[in-house]
Amino acid sequence: MRVEATVRLGRGRFTELSLLAWVAALALTGFVAVLATETSSFSPAAVVVPLVFLVLMVALHVFLVSIRFRGDQLLLPIAAGLTAIGLVLVQRLASDLLFQQLSWSIIAAGAFAATIVVPRDLTALARFKWTWALLGVLLLVAPLLPIIGREINGARIWIKVGPGSIEPWEAVKILLVIFFAAYLEEYREVLSHSQRRIGPFPVPPLPYLVPIVAMWGIAMLVMVFEKDMGATVLFFGIFLAMLFLATGEAFYAIIGLALLVLGGIVAYQLFGHVQARVDTWIRPFDEDLRFGTGYQLVQGLFALANGGLFGAGLGNGMPDRIPVVWSDFVFDAFAEEAGLAGAVALLALYLVFLYRGMLIALRAPTMFLQLLAAGLSFIVALQTLVIVGGNLRLIPLTGITLPFVAYGGSSLVTNWMLVGLLMRVSQVSSRMRGARP
Amino acid sequence: MSPISANIRSLTLTLALAFLVTSIGATYWTVLASDRLANDPFNPRLIAATNDRPRGAIVDRSGAPIATSAKTDAGYSRSYKDRTLSQVVGYASTKFGLSGVEAAYAESLIGQDPADPASIWRARYLGDRGPAGQVILGIDLKIQKAAADALGGRKGAIVAIDPRTGAILASVSVPSYDANQIVDRSKQESAWAQVTADPGRPLLNRVTQGLYPPGSIFKVVTAAAALETGFDPTKKLRVDDPYQADKSWGDYFVRSASHAHGLFDMADGFRLSENIYFAQVGLEIGAARLTDYARRFGVGSTPKLDLAATKGQLSDSGTIDRPTLLADTSYGQGELLVSPLQMVVRDIAPGPIGQVISPNTAKTLTAMLVGAVAGPGAFAFGAKIPGVDVAGKTGTAENRPGQAPHGWFVGFAPAAAPTVVVAVIVENTPEGGVAAAPLGAQVMRAALGK
Questions:
Q1: Residue B197 in contact with partner chain A when CB distance is under 8 A
Q2: Is A4 exposed, middle or buried (0-12, 13-18, 19+ CB in 10 A)?
Q3: Is there a contact between A152 and A166 (Cβ–Cβ < 8 Å)?
Q4: Cα gap B284→A121, rounded to integer Å
Q5: Domain that holds residue B356
Q6: Is residue B10 situated within a structural domain?
Q7: What is the CATH number of the domain that holds B114?
Q8: A247 contacts in B (CB within 8 Å)?
Q9: Rounded to two decimals, what is the model's pTM?
Q10: pLDDT tens-digit series, residues B241-289
């Protein structure tokens, strides 16, 4: 695990800057390629959109240099590269949404900068853990409220804000990690060194588990009422991962997974929308499903098949055959036009992101910061695995966004705040280690 | 070293493994399953390839167009000339995929040779395709029209085959649908909703996919099995309606349609279509022998064909496991189900296809089937054609109680050296086989040019 070269701390942030040059190349060629296949005449959007985006990214870089920020230099270029791929794909798949997505990335950049500056002391986050828990619950319940709540595509997870709508659970996932990290740091000892065992199984001291199980239970209940399997799986995953990180008891995770499968079976019996998802996953090609609930998945698999090793080329495939491709099926769309090579490269970007995030966690000075960084990195990895796995028919499809790439404002903004937090943690680590290579 | 560092490492490793599995999944769909999915008839890319260039034509045996592509403002569009061939020719819709011949020859029709794997790669990466292929069907539009006219609007199916080549000369399935609407972007949604909701199931090709009890036409199979088992066709059997073999049948009886009492030989059995006669024949030769011949005649196996076809069944369990079922199966009831195509291809007409019995047996059977059409009091008299010996057999297949029976006719002509074999089914007709026989004659006349 030697990547010291990239975290060497000089005055400038040259690694970051040189990697952003690659992002610039990617964004420009992507836009030009897509527009070249769409229109014969030259469109100014081909240059304007990627330029605005690149100016934005360079501005973030300059901002970090100007405040002498000394954290990680890889996360910003990775997030920028993924966002650039996202913009190219929005232009390719739903060009009428392009300016909306560009506006969201400007807001996301602002939120990132704010996260870098605002919490003066990260450890202070831990002190207000009950505030975060309360805020999270409020945000989760908000879509169920009559006036501001909204149901889109059968899931009631939106709230109306001004002309648009946002998905509050995207923010809740970060609040959940902060709360868990703070709580588990405090009670880790009691949870992981339980004296009582039944056979090989540790019996956790129940009173200490109550708050986290309650927090998780509220999240699950609300998600059942809001009919969003993706978020439910994500929350459950965060819960299990944090518990495992703090205690090291794989047993908790195994029991948790068993409960998830059990819950899935019960939900399959009870809820029509769960049953449809599972049936579609098991036999999408069957005659009764391929034109019904299986249509989207089957079209996605056709797109993948058309991709082959090197893809059809940007703008040359037919991913627009997949309904709502820009939100749920961007991975398949990207794989059709960039091929297996592009798809694996995309996955590799997320893997590097995960690796950097976990490295930051390992180097963090306090357990709270360790849990925080690991939990945040875990979110990005799990979200990627769940949606890509769904697109590839490895697991049932759930409507969760591909981080940074899929169309959607709430997701983009919260993920950029997540990057901000991770970089803040890395800065604390580098200060602690004396800031000299 | 923090106490949770090891946990962070384990979690990272687990996630990294999950990423590995995901990459393998991506490899599977993009590379390993790619060729299969790329040529799936429902893959819109196959059809889209013909939006900017003409799709190959589908023509009848003399080259008369059945499906063609013409240039419109929105690219090339497909038009289908003969509604009576809708289930055979199928459709090529970007929205609903391909069916019928359009699906079976999907690659040739867009200029991609399925026998040349390199052409698939050339098409995918270079957009380079050969000229679109033309598909020539065995269908003869003249015979097709005669078959469609014969059936009129009645639900059912007619199929005619040239036994010398196996070519399908005509294939009609009613009700039908208009494939032009399925490929028309402005109408396709409502048209699709309509045809899929229609209780008459117009998308179903009744010739290959319709399953019916064969009724008396199956007696041909029983007779063939008996003749080749050494059963003497001139031996007279006693027929007394109602019939049961022994008391163990309880209150179960085989009934004679004409409430017959008397002595019957095999020719009489065919001419008067006597159930009790054939039930006794079946019981005498046994279940194993009948099962063997039913299989030889193709019951329970999918016919070799470019189109979707069902295999039918000998019985619900696949075997004849009790005497009453053996008796019922012998005259074509019981739990038998066949498609019209199975009843025609497996006929006894001499020729490269179909003949699964010895020439001698075929000769004896043919003579009796000529008698079933032209003999005194024959049920299939409606199939007579002046100046030509017609061999044939009617069937009146009982189905659910309270519904009128299905009328069958299978036959071939000229009896000595057939050039056309035909199967007709008319659903729910009170006259049964008597109604179907003249339809068979009309089709055979068109084929023979009489």
A1: no
A2: exposed
A3: no
A4: 98
A5: 207-448
A6: no
A7: 3.90.1310.10
A8: 7
A9: 0.70
A10: 889 888 888 888 888 888 888 999 998 998 888 999 999 999 999 999 9
